[in-house]
Design brief:
By secondary structure, the chain is mainly alpha-helical. The protein has one domain (56-288): MetI-like (MetI-like fold), CATH 1.10.3720. The chain is built from 14 helices and no strands. It has helices spanning 2-33, 37-43, 55-60, 64-97, 104-116, 121-131, 138-142, 149-160, 164-172, 177-188, 190-205, 209-214, 223-242, 257-288. Helix 1 (2-33) packs antiparallel against helix 14, helix 4 (64-97) packs antiparallel against helix 11 and helix 11 (190-205) packs antiparallel against helix 14.
């Protein structure tokens, strides 16, 4: 009996070791964010701060209302993108998975084609600003992120693996496609939809480029772009000090590496809280919805 348990003990030990190796960098990240910039450059990264300091967080939360407003903008944009995106992508995936869809193959190729080629940044910018006039609006932060081709293919593959007899029997009972989709297909697709929702939320939460290109109003800055601007302001100040621009500020009082770590903690915090709720369906959604030809 003991011999049979040895492989399981070894597997558990390897899993625990790997988990610890994954957790340690995050602990170093948190520790560095609470470490004085000078001590961090002299002593390096440590699990326990060598010199506890809150300067980095003071810079980030110097205007707390600005931070809270950016959090609100990002949370709203992320939630709206997830809800709208999962609904639209699941409808597309369901349509492509149905055997009675005459144009399923050309439409599937059209979706797959966008994985290989895109219009590029310049045409996208012209479309958003000159044609749709979405600059400084929530639409530019939400609508373009509704559909990811890879997620559509994942959902389509999942729908294709569902028993088609369920759909056929529902049609015999008089249900139309909308009833079948909302009352049969969606409830059976929670694993893959939850996985897609998590991927979409992560992508939108970490999006700073949209704010850089399309947002000029401070009250509409998403969180990642606001943190990016703080970092750029600090870098500009350090550059001016190094060039002797007549600025009398002690460089030791200005956060550098610890600021980057604090920004990462502030940005990643909400996602760390949300992830456990998605973990239950995460693996099953990835495996069952795996891409096939």
């Amino acid at each position: 009996m003991k011999k049979k348990n040895r492989p399981q003990i070894l597997i558990n030990a390897i899993g625990i070791f790997y988990a610890v190796m994954c957790i340690i960098p995050f602990i170093l990240l948190i520790s560095a964010s609470f470490t004085n910039a000078t001590a961090l450059s002299e002593n390096g990264f440590r699990l326990i701060p060598s010199e506890f300091d809150l300067t980095a967080y003071e810079y980030i939360f110097k205007s707390p209302m600005r931070v809270l407003r950016s959090y609100g903008v990002t949370i709203f944009a992320t939630a709206a993108t997830v809800v709208g995106g999962v609904l639209i992508m699941s409808m597309i995936g369901y349509t492509l998975a149905r055997s009675n869809c005459k144009f399923a193959r050309p439409l599937s190729f059209y979706v797959f084609f966008t994985l290989l080629f895109s219009g590029g940044m310049v045409p996208s910018y012209i479309l958003m600003t000159q044609v749709l006039h979405w600059k400084d609006t929530f639409a530019v932060m939400i609508v373009p992120s509704f559909v990811y081709a890879f997620h559509v293919i994942m959902i389509r593959t999942f729908f294709q693996k569902l028993p088609q007899e369920l759909f056929e029997s529902a049609k015999v009972d008089g249900a139309n496609e909308f009833v079948i989709f909302f009352k049969i297909a969606l409830p059976l697709s929670i694993p893959v939809l939850t996985t897609v929702a998590f991927f979409t939320a992560m992508s939108k939460w970490n999006d700073w480029q949209t704010g850089l290109l399309y947002i000029t109003k401070e009250e509409m800055e998403p969180l990642q772009y606001m943190l990016y601007r703080i970092q750029q302001n600090i870098q500009s100040l350090l550059t001016a000090l190094s060039q002797g621009g007549g600025i009398t500020v002690d460089v030791r009082d200005i956060p550098s590496q610890n600021l980057l770590m604090a920004m990462a903690v502030v940005a990643a915090g909400p996602m760390l809280v949300v992830f456990p709720f998605f973990q239950k369906y995460f693996i099953s959604g990835l495996t069952v919805g795996a891409v096939k030809g």
